[in-house]
Amino acid sequence: MDPLSNAYTVSPAFIMQVMLMDEAGKTSLRQIKGHQAAAMAGALVSPLHTLRDMTGSQGAYFVFSDLSVRIEGSFRLRFELYEMEG
Length: 86
Prior knowledge:
Blueprint: E1 14-21, E2 40-41, E3 45-52, E4 58-62, E5 68-69, E6 76-83
Antiparallel strand pairs: 1-3, 1-6, 2-5, 3-4
């Protein structure tokens, strides 16, 4: 796909995943220490949504409307973009 075209804004092939990382951004925090519970709650993967911004320009967005962190502390969020092929 030509990266200079706007075709990517309507492609169902793109998804974004979010991960909770330690404050330095080096270690993924998947579970709460000593518990089976996940450190984050909500949808951790989002498909691409074609939306308009506040100026009316069309763009590609990934919406994570219900994320929550279940432990106290300082963290970073890591977002990874994937293109599904097949």
